[in-house]
Amino acid sequence: MTDTAQPHVSPAHDGETRRDFLVLTAGALGAIGAAVTIWPFIDSLNPAKDTLALSTTEVDLAPVQVGQRLTVAWRGKPVFIDHRPPEEIKKAQDVDVASLRDPQPDSARVKKPEWLVIVGVCTHLGCIPLGNKPGDERGPFGGWFCPCHGSIYDTSGRIRQGPAPLNLVVPPYDFTSDTAIKIG
Amino acid sequence: MTVPATTHRGPQSRILRWVDYRLPFYSIIEHDLTGYPTPKNLSYWWNFGSLAGIILVIMIVTGIVLAMHYTPHADLAFDSVERIMRDVNYGWLLRYIHMNGASMFFLIVYIHLFRGLYYGSYKYPRELLWMLGVVILILMIATAFMGYVLPWGQMSYWAATVITNLFSAVPVFGQKIVTLLWGGFTVGNPTLNRFFSLHYLLPFIIVAVVMLHLVALHQHGSNNPLGIDHRGPQDTIPFHPYYTIKDCFGLCVFLILFAFFVFYAPNFFASADNYIPANPMVTPNHIVPEWYLLPYYAILRSITFDFLGIPSKLLGVVLSLGSLVLLFFVPWLDTSRVRSARFRPIYRWVSLLLPIDVVALGYVGSQPPAGFVVTLGQIATFYYYFHFLVLMPLIGKLERPRPLPISIGEAVLGTGAAAQRP
To answer: pTM for the full model?
Structure first.
C-alpha cells in the first residue's frame, strides 16, 4: 500500500458543511419556485387576450374629402387622419428640419403625402389636442393645439411650441388598398 | 407559561435595537416564532394550523387579483369569469387555485378541528382559543358561500336563493329579513353586489380573528398528543428551526395534493351546472352545496316533521346552524379533565365515531332526499347531537382514564413506564 498514491483526505472542517450545501441549494430552489409562482400573478395584470384583440383598426378613407380631418379609435386612443391639401403638405415639407425640437422630415412621417396618420395624444401629459374638428383652434402652425398646457403642433404633427418634448406619434399602419388603411 | 424567555438575545445591530425598543418587532419574532417554546412531541396532526394560515394567505392573494378582473354585476359577472378563464393571462390558474383553495381550506380546517376534538385541545386553559376557532369556521362558511355566488352560474344563483331563504323560517319577520338580504324580491343584482362587497371584507375579518386565535394560542402554548402541560425546558424545543422545517415539509406534501387538483382535476369539486349562466326561471334538477357544507345541508333536510309545535322548516334551520353553535359549548360539555383521547379508553372510540357520522351526513347531503337517505340523515343528525349533548358529558363522568405520563420529556425519551403509547 505504500506504493500507491496517498488518497485525498479532505480537511475535516474548513467551514463548509453538508448542511451549508443543503441550505443553499434548498434556498435557491425555494427562491426560484417563489419567482415562478409570482409570475402568473403579475402577468395576469398585463393586457388580456381580448384587449390585445382590439389592437387593430381598419379605416375606409374613400369618403374623406381633401382638407377633412377624421378621428378614429385605435386601442382606445384617438387616431387623427388628415387628408392634407397641397398647401398643408408644402408647409410641412418646407420646414428647416434642423430647427425642430424633435427633428423629423415630413417624408418620414407619412406613407402618402396627402394622408397624415398620427396618434392624437399630446406627448406632454396625454391630453387630446384640438384641431381635428372644424372650428377647433389649430394653433399658429395650422396643425393641432393642446388646450391642457399649450403645446402646438404643425401640419405634420410635429411639436413646434409649448412643453411637449416629442412629435405626435405615427402609429404602425399599412394601406390595404388605395383608399383603406389598417392601423396596428 | 413555564418556559423562561432566557433565550431572548434581541437584535445585534444598534439600529435594530433602536427600532426594537420602540416597536418590538424583533422581540415579537423572537418570542412568537424563532424562540417560541413548543412541545417536543407534536405529531403531524399539528401541521394543519399553519397550513390553514398559509391557505388563507393564498386565498386572499388570488382573490385580490381575481377581483381586479371580475365584474360584480348580474349581467356581466358570468362573462367576466369566462373572460378570466379564457383571456386573462393565467386567469385560469388564479381561478382554479382560488376555487380549489376553498375546498383545501375546509379540508385542512376540518382536520384541524377533529385533531382538537381528539386531543382535547379545547380544555382549560384553551377554551377561548377553541371558541375563536369556531368563529373562524363560521366566518369561513359565510365567505365561501358568498364567493360561490359570484360566478353567477345556475348553482350560484340557486344556492343564494336557497340559503337566503333559510331566514324565511324566522317567525313573523322571516320574509322581511329575506327581502332585506336580497335588496329586492328575488336574488338579483343588488344581492350580487353586496355579496361581492362582503366576500372581499370577510377574509380580512378572518385574518383579524386568526390573530386573536394566535394570541390565545401563544398565551399557554400548543397542546400536544399527550395532552399534558409542558413543565420546563426539557419538555419543549424552539419553534425554529424544528417546527418551521416540519411545517415546511407538511406544506410541500399539501401543495402536491393541491397542485394535483388545480392542474389535473380542477373541476373535481365543482358542479357542471355552475357553467350555465344564472336563470331565475329554471332551477337545476339536483341542487347540492359544495362538499364542505353537505353535513349542515343534510341536517337541514332531515327534519321533515314538526316537533313540539315548532314547524319542520324552522327546526331544520335551527338544528343545522346549531350543529356549529354547539361547538362553542364543547369545552364545558366535555366533563373529563384528561385532554388527550389516548388516555381515555371509551371516549377514544366514541370520538372516532363522530367523523364517521359527519361523513354519513355529508353523503346524505349529496343524495336526492328520498327513501333510505332520509332515514339515514335523521339517524345521523340525532347521533351528532347525541354525541355532544349526551355522550361527551356522560363519558367524562363514567370513564376511568389511563394514568398520564409524568412529563412530556420523560414520555419522549422513553424513560418512564407511563410513557408507553396506547
So the answer is: 0.86
